[in-house]
Design goal:
By secondary structure, the chain is an alpha/beta fold. It starts with a helix and ends in a 7-residue tail after the last strand. Helices cover 23% and strands 21% of the residues. The mean pLDDT is 96. The chain is elongated, with a radius of gyration of 26 Å. The chain has 14 helices and 27 strands. Strands 10-11-14-15-16-17-18-19 form an eight-stranded parallel barrel. It has a six-stranded antiparallel sheet with strand order 20-21-22-27-24-25. Strands 3, 4, 7, 8 and 9 form a five-stranded antiparallel sheet that branches. It binds calcium ion (CA). The site of calcium ion has 9 residues, from strand 12.
């Protein structure tokens, strides 16, 4: 057993602190500081006027007292709102100066914490602000995944605060050609949840730069603080908080719930991470040789299974859900986090906010968690009934393999239909009910849907790519589960490098590659795809039967049509209890297919060209399904006896 392992064992046995008061707690009269620093020789609190580490003027350095379970405490009798602070942790003759891992506010670049009166950051009406989809379930959600910069930064977006939280608090915005942008675009599209790529404080960008550049932000530095480059003043600890709250308030006012992408599986830099500087090596996993475990591919894996790490993650998610009114959490590489931590988070948050949704990436990755630890992978889905996983089977079968240029079902491959048929029902291997599967065909990772289809079919007209795009979207929105799209997918988003190639990992590629061009909607082909997405979303939202959450309801309601199909043509019958019957067909053939409709009058709601919540045209007897397209029929409602 290594020294580190022995140490960690001792911490697990003797130093588990369960209080909910770590960090600094402000009142007008006094501020209480508490930091978990077991095995330290001493800890002091250092107060500063400035949050900038270039300003070395110290106000005061005060000794902290060790109390229960390795927690060092100090209460300062004064109004410390706006005062910055660090901890000086002394061990074996060496002193480390660190930011509070529980910091709620920080100075520029997140190296000093700030004491804060959080009520001072609340926008008007915050006390009555709430999730606009509070009464709905996770399968009712339509999730739209975007990045603060991508959604606002395009030169023609018509948005004033480009690349900022406040840019997403602007309403009524549009491009010079009149296409809606930002919030207006999302409203027009009809999504319910905006899922935002990391917006906690990350380390890759220098907040002191006038033009800090671009990064997705999967490199956490301060988990409980918003990122400074998205604020208009990263130097002032309150600004980023109040601006993020304003953004959330305006989104809520516009009926859009907010999901936060959270990265609790690794930190930006294991050695520099504040928690590790206070308790060396505790926050991350090491293998038997003492090397950092690296299942994340980002240099380290967080040891979520350790008591105080698990508590830290739980406290953090709870804080965002309550203080910031965040309505959902997307866990990056959840497969590196243990099942008990995921369930602990969900239970804690749902005890006060049952409306919050949880989902994440359930890939199995090698990590040094030990064999006794059960990880939050797809395979273990049944152990986490309130957590959904991204469905890569649907994605890859529809569009073709992730890292190659092969065709998928929507570009004319007949492979994988049995898998797809299962995915359509929301019940697929690990997904025991539709509320466990996030259905999608593109996200920020890898090529955009447009680019991936173009790679598989380099020689077809753009109208053909548009047709495949619509076909893929139809599959996602008509399937049981939780539909999810990458922002801009509905505008045939493309990520093109300066040399003309497609970018498959644009995490630092800048606005030129990443910013969403809303005026693409003025292009005739793109407009058509955009309208189709709007129609699909409206149709889904209008039909409860597409949003089942229980496996038995699925089995009772949905059956596969067996006659007159085959060879790339799939059909499903949906028989809701209190609505008219619905037929859904998918034709992956390059030729049109004739089907026989059951007796009676039908209406078409979705075909190769259009999708709508209103009937497009009547159908009776026979119908023709165009190549590479979906078609939906609903039994015509009888308005009275003849
Ligand atoms: Ca930062």
């Amino acid at each position: 057993m290594s020294f580190m392992e022995k140490n960690n064992k001792r911490l697990e046995n003797e130093y588990c602190y369960s209080g909910h008061d770590l960090g600094s707690t402000w009142t007008k009269e006094k501020t209480a500081f508490k930091v978990w620093a077991p095995l330290a020789d001493s800890v002091s609190l250092r107060l500063y006027k400035s949050g900038d580490t270039d300003d070395r003027e110290v106000l005061e350095t005060l000794f902290m007292k060790e109390e229960d379970k390795g927690v060092y405490c100090l209460t300062v009798e004064d109004d410390l709102h706006g005062i910055y602070y660090t901890y000086l942790v002394e061990r074996d003759g060496e002193t480390a100066e660190v930011c509070d891992p529980y910091a709620k506010a920080v100075g520029v670049n997140g190296d000093r914490a700030m004491v804060i009166d959080l009520s001072s950051t609340d926008p008007e009406g915050w006390e009555s602000d709430m999730n606009p989809h509070i009464a709905e379930g996770i399968t009712d959600a339509v999730i739209y995944e975007g990045h603060i910069r991508d959604l606002t930064a395009a030169p023609n977006s018509g948005i004033y605060d480009k690349g900022k939280f406040l840019g997403l608090a602007e309403t009524g915005t549009h491009t010079p050609s009149g296409d809606a942008s930002g919030i207006e675009h999302m409203k027009e599209l009809g999504i319910t949840h905006l899922h935002i790529l990391p917006m906690y404080d990350f380390s890759s960008l220098d907040e002191k730069e006038e033009e800090p550049g671009y990064n997705w932000g999967y490199d956490p530095k301060n988990y409980n603080v918003p990122e400074g480059t998205y604020s208009t003043d990263p130097y002032d600890g309150t600004t980023r908080i109040s601006e993020l709250k304003q953004m959330i308030k305006v989104l809520h006012d516009n009926k859009i719930s907010v999901v936060m992408d959270v990265v609790y599986n690794h930190v930006a830099d294991a050695a520099e991470f504040s928690f590790n500087k206070i308790v060396p090596g505790y926050f991350v996993r090491t293998d038997k040789k003492g090397n950092l475990s690296n299942g994340s591919g980002c240099g380290n894996d967080v040891a979520s299974e350790r008591y105080m790490v698990r508590k830290f993650i739980e406290d953090s998610v709870y804080y965002w859900a309550t203080e910031y009114h965040i309505d959902g959490f997307r866990f990056d590489l959840a497969g590196l986090i243990d099942v008990d931590t995921i369930n602990g988070i969900i239970n804690r948050v749902k005890s006060v906010r049952p409306d919050v949704i949880f989902y994440g990436e359930g890939w199995s990755l090698p990590t040094a968690a030990g064999r006794k630890v059960s990880l939050a992978t797809q395979k273990n889905s049944s152990k986490m009934p309130e957590f959904a996983f991204f469905n890569d089977t649907m994605r890859d079968t529809l569009r073709g393999g992730l890292f190659d240029k092969t065709k998928g079902y929507v570009s004319g491959s007949m492979k994988g239909q049995r898998k797809l048929a299962k995915c359509f029902t929301g019940l697929y291997k690990w997904s025991k009910s539709p509320d466990r599967t996030v259905n999608y065909i593109s996200c920020h990772d890898n090529n955009t849907l447009h680019d991936r289809l173009r790679m598989a079919c380099p020689d077809v007209y753009e109208t053909e790519i548009a047709r495949m795009n619509k076909f893929a979207a139809a599959f996602v929105f008509l399937s049981q589960g939780i539909p999810f799209i990458q922002a801009g997918e509905e505008l045939m988003r493309t990520k093109v490098n300066t040399n003309g190639s497609f970018n498959e990992n644009s995490y630092k590629a800048g606005d030129g590659v990443n910013a969403i061009n809303y005026s693409a909607a003025s292009d005739e082909i793109v407009r058509d795809v955009y309208e189709y997405y709007k129609g699909l979303i409206a149709f889904r939202r209008a039909h409860r039967v597409l949003r089942l959450s229980d496996r038995y309801d699925v089995k009772k309601t949905i059956s596969r049509i067996r006659s007159g199909v085959g060879e790339g043509l799939m059909g499903f019958k949906l028989r809701p209890r209190d609505e008219e019957e619905i037929l859904v067909y998918f034709n992956a053939c390059m030729n049109q297919r004739l089907i026989v409709l059951p007796y009676g009058d039908w209406d078409v709601y979705v075909d190769a060209d259009r999708a709508s919540a209103e009937p497009l045209k009547p159908a009776k007897g026979f119908a023709t399904i165009q190549p590479l397209s979906a078609m939906v029929f609903k039994r015509h409602k009888r308005t009275g006896d003849l």
